[in-house]
């Protein structure tokens, strides 16, 4: 809706003061959000417009939802950005996260000229992807001078997505609920319209209208002043705003009336020639003029032609609702014939249909499937929901609703999916209910609940009749088997999915699970062969992206870290047409590979981005992996308070065999190791050692927990148990020729043999480990090996050899800033008579991982915008972090920062280039 028809407003001083006060706060460099709500016509739009006029010195972005366009992906965002041409990145994009990032980027750029005001009016009618992108962006504003004002009749309106509703009703949001104007204000309002009202007459007007300014203005405009002021005579009935509009309509000629009705059917605003065609009027200009004079329409003409606009949403609603059902349908039927896009045509056909309508439901379903092929999951879901509404048979209705639920999960709208599922009718066939609830349980991270539901859904599903659903069920079950650690079962479900999938596009995780499951059984070659035909550059929307991500994992497990990082980065950069979960896992795989490769700041940043994405898109089942990975870097650096929140959830009970992958157990053990708590390691890994399905756990290279446990047992004097962990692991690692695992084993066995007094055995074990470690580039693992070997050599009084090992360890641990390990190394060096050359506390060490990541990316030559995109942050947040870094390191320029980091950070494993540009 365009901001329209505004005169000076009366009253509302308290509300305006609050907006101004908040803006003052925003101007200090903090974001603010306001929810303005209240009944229709109460003056929400007017209030905000007034505020914008008073702060005309600031840049503002405005958009408003339009009921007719609520199915149009990114319509609202396109409006927000409209005045910022050439900026319309969401054209062609289908991913709310990408759009959210673009919005953040835009806000960042605009802030260079000062604080910004973003206004979203009639949010309840904005399209869902825009609202999701807005929510995503709002959550990421930290150090931004952005005041966001969201206007809706109520935040509880069903079309406001749950995530946004929470944000708008949360503590961080200022709520302005508009009540009616007082009598004195109405008197002033009347005065502005040239009518002098005594206070008592104004009081009566307030009672009649609840102080609703739209209604009051209408009465003042239509009722003669002498009637308004004469308290002995009642105000004319009917007194509703609707009736006042209809009176005006009835006062028009028939052509003008028909034109207004046609406009009402087309939407809040539409090109006049389309209105003319629909109303069957050859020359629409004269009746249009008449409607404008009657204040039923406004004339908004542009270079593109005449445009008709309703003066107020309630005027539009009154006109539309006054049409008889028959006339309304007939007009929509004709509008469908005249429509120039499929989407528009379908919208009118839905309104024209005599529910139920089988053919239309089928067309909507076909359109939805087309949308899903381009990854437009929100639109897929909306069309399926419409199709379900008008499906004649209850069963079809349920089928389509279930598919809509699955699409919403893919779109990262898990809460919307849950709401839809809660509304499944009692008559819904069991298999459909099981599928919908099972998919939801999986997404929410309740595998124990998901497995029986999905198993039953599969057993009852007629795959020939419903191949899309059959594939999805099988995909979910393959994921669950993978999570439980059963490779063969996961492969079995992948095969079932594939054989049901004739003509159905592969869902996102089929290839990933297939390859990972094969690799978990030692069949990495077979897994990699599945991705052999992947072209060098995988097309954005084409198939194969699932296998690209699968290959990233298999390469990582097979010590090809460069290959893994490349694949995961490519998967990430092309993930915008894939499900929310796909994007989360691309972040997680990338972060994990970077961690192994010693690129810890990148790893921390990518895993943190994965955590926040998983949370924002409700992917509970996926969240555990990035969360666990996010604990590793702070733990290894001795920042245990930072690591703790990420692993806390891992301590929750894990009763089911399907309780996620054992990432959190591993992260806990890793943390306990860094703290030097051997009992803690054993306790953390207890659920891993007792797990029923062992493929993913026991396969060398996947999750390197064995050496941690063996070391802990050794330290506790439980030597037999240490050997029992190492022996089978070594056998398998040797069989696979996996050097990384063999290096870990050699180190742990060296420690064990040393503890048992077998010094010769220990030495040859350490030496063998060194040979393996030289074959792969795993800096942290190698440093730990040098450290342990150095300790052994010092105890054996081989001081020179010990020093060589310890110094090698020290150099790497220093670069990684692995403080607890470094301290140990320094103690050993001192004991060898050579204190570490470098000071123990580097100036950069009190940076948070995010500050580090930002600093490092800045020094790799990235602009702040590029950094923001990479780390899923706002540009201002990046600047904020950089400012902190400057302060903590005592540097004043980007160049100085880069020089400093190069000094401290060289050899972080990452290929640091020269210093980045000083400016953004
Ligand atoms: N404080 C005010 N003083 C004078 N006139 C006002 C005031 N507030 C609103 N109006 C008038 O009342 C009409 C309705 O206001 P507005 O469009 O702002 O309502 P709204 O709450 O945004 O309604 P909706 O929920 O339908 O969008 C407008 O024509 C406007 O000019
Ligand atoms: Mg409004």
Molecular structure report:
- This protein is mainly alpha-helical.
- It has eight domains: 13-177, P-loop containing nucleotide triphosphate hydrolases (Rossmann fold), CATH 3.40.50; 183-239, no CATH class; 245-352, Orthogonal Bundle (Arc Repressor Mutant, subunit A), CATH 1.10.10; 359-417, no CATH class; 429-507, Alpha Horseshoe (Serine Threonine Protein Phosphatase 5, Tetratricopeptide repeat), CATH 1.25.40; 510-615, Serine Threonine Protein Phosphatase 5, Tetratricopeptide repeat (Alpha Horseshoe); 616-843, Alpha Horseshoe (Serine Threonine Protein Phosphatase 5, Tetratricopeptide repeat); 849-905, Arc Repressor Mutant, subunit A (Orthogonal Bundle).
- It has 47 helices and eight strands.
- A five-stranded parallel β-sheet has the order 2-3-4-1-5, with helices on both faces. The protein has a three-stranded antiparallel β-sheet with strand order 6-8-7.
- Helix 26 runs antiparallel to helix 27.
- The protein is elongated, with a radius of gyration of 33 Å.
- Mean pLDDT is 86; it is low at 1-5, 839-844 and 905-920.
- The structure holds adenosine-5'-triphosphate and magnesium ion.
- Residues 5-7, 9-12, 38, 40-46, 122, 153, 181, 189, 213-214, 217, 312-314 line the site of adenosine-5'-triphosphate (ATP).
State the low-pLDDT regions, or none. 1-5, 839-844, 905-920
The structural domain count equals 8
Strand order of the largest sheet: 2-3-4-1-5
CATH architecture of the largest domain: Alpha Horseshoe
* Overall shape: elongated
Distinct small molecules bound, one entry per kind? adenosine-5'-triphosphate, magnesium ion
CATH level-four homologous superfamily name of the largest domain: Tetratricopeptide repeat domain
What structural category arises from helix and sheet content?
A: mainly alpha
The number of distinct β-strands equals 8
Strand content: under 5%
Mean pLDDT: 86
> How far is the first residue's CA from the last residue's CA?
37 Å
Number of helices: 47
């Amino acid at each position: 809706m365009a901001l329209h028809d505004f005169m000076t407003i009366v009253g509302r001083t308290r509300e305006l003061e609050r907006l101004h006060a908040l803006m003052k706060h925003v101007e200090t460099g903090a974001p603010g959000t306001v929810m303005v709500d209240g009944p229709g016509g109460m003056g929400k739009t007017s209030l905000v417009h007034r505020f914008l006029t008073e702060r005309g010195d600031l840049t503002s972005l405005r958009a408003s939802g339009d009921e007719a366009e609520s199915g149009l992906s990114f319509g609202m965002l396109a409006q927000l950005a409209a005045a910022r041409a050439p900026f319309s990145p969401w054209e062609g994009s289908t991913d709310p996260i990408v759009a959210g990032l673009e919005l953040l980027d835009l806000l960042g750029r605009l802030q260079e000229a000062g604080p910004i005001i973003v206004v979203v009016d009639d949010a309840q009618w904005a399209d869902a992807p825009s609202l999701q992108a807005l929510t995503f962006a709002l959550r990421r504003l930290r150090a931004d001078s952005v005041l966001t004002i969201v206007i809706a009749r109520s935040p509880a309106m069903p079309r406001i997505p749950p995530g946004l509703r929470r944000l708008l009703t949360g503590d961080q949001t200022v709520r302005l609920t508009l009540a009616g104007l007082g009598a004195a204000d109405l008197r002033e309002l009347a005065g502005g319209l040239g009518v002098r009202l005594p206070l008592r007459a104004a009081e009566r007007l307030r009672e009649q209208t609840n102080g609703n300014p739209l209604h009051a203005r209408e009465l003042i405009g239509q009722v003669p002043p002498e009637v308004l002021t004469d308290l002995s005579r009642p105000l004319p009935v009917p007194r509703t705003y609707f009736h006042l509009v209809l009176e005006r309509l009835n006062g028009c000629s028939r052509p003008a009336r028909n034109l207004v009705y046609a406009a009402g059917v087309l939407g809040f605003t539409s090109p006049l020639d389309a209105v003319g065609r629909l109303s069957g009027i050859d020359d629409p200009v004269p009746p249009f003029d008449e409607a404008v004079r009657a204040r039923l329409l406004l004339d908004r003409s542009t270079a593109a032609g005449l445009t008709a606009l309703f003066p107020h949403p309630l005027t539009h609603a009154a006109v539309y609702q006054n049409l008889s059902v028959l006339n309304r349908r007939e007009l929509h039927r004709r509008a469908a014939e005249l429509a120039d896009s499929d989407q528009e045509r379908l919208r009118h056909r839905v309104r024209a249909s005599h529910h139920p309508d089988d053919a239309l439901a089928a067309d909507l379903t076909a359109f939805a499937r087309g949308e899903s092929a381009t990854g437009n999951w929100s639109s897929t879901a909306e069309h399926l929901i419409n199709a379900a509404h008008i499906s004649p048979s209850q069963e079809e209705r349920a089928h389509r609703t279930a598919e809509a639920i699955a699409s919403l999960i893919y779109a990262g709208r898990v809460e919307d999916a849950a709401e839809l599922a809660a509304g499944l009718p009692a008559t819904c066939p069991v298999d459909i209910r099981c599928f919908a609830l099972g998919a939801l349980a999986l997404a929410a991270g309740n595998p124990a609940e998901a497995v029986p539901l999905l198993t039953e859904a599969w057993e009852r599903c007629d795959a020939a009749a419903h191949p899309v659903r059959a594939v999805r069920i099988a995909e979910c079950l393959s994921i669950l088997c993978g999570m439980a650690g059963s490779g063969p079962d996961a492969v079995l479900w992948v095969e079932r999915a594939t054989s049901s999938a004739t003509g159905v596009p592969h869902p996102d995780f089929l290839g990933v699970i297939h390859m990972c499951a094969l690799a978990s059984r030692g069949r990495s070659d077979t897994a990699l062969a599945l991705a052999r035909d992947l072209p060098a550059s995988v097309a954005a929307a084409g198939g194969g992206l699932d296998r690209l991500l699968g290959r990233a994992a298999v390469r990582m497990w097979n010590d090809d870290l460069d290959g893994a990082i490349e694949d995961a980065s490519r998967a990430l950069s092309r993930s915008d047409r894939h499900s929310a979960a796909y994007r989360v896992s691309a972040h997680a795989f990338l972060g994990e590979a970077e961690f192994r490769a010693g690129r810890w700041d990148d790893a921390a940043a990518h895993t943190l981005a994965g955590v926040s994405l998983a949370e924002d898109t409700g992917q509970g089942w996926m969240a555990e992996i990035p969360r666990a990975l996010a604990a590793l870097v702070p733990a290894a650096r001795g920042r245990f308070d930072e690591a703790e929140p990420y692993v806390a959830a891992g301590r929750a009970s894990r009763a089911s065999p399907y309780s996620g992958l054992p990432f959190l157990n591993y992260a806990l053990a890793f943390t306990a190791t860094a703290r030097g708590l051997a009992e803690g390691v054993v306790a953390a890994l207890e659920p891993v050692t007792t797990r029923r399905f062992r493929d993913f756990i026991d396969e060398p290279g996947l999750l390197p927990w064995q050496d941690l446990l063996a070391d802990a047992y050794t330290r506790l004097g439980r030597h037999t148990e240490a050997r029992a962990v190492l022996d089978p692991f070594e056998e398998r690692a040797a069989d696979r020729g996996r050097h990384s695992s063999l290096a870990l084993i050699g180190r742990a066995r060296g420690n064990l043999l040393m503890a048992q007094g077998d010094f010769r055995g220990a030495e040859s074990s350490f030496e063998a480990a060194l040979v393996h470690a030289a074959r792969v580039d795993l800096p942290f693992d190698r440093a730990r090996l040098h450290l342990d070997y150095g300790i052994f050599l010092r105890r054996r009084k081989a001081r020179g050899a010990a020093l060589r090992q310890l110094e090698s360890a020290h150099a790497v641990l220093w670069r990684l800033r692995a403080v607890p390990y470094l301290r140990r190394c320094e103690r050993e060096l001192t004991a060898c008579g050579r204190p570490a050359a470098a000071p123990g506390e580097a100036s950069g060490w009190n940076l948070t991982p995010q500050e580090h990541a930002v600093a490092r990316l800045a020094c790799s030559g990235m602009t702040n915008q590029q950094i923001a995109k990479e780390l899923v942050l706002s540009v201002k947040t990046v600047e904020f972090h950089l400012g902190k870094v400057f302060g903590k390191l005592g540097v004043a320029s980007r160049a100085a920062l880069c020089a400093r980091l190069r000094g401290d950070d060289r050899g972080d494993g990452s290929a640091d280039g020269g210093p980045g540009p000083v400016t953004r």
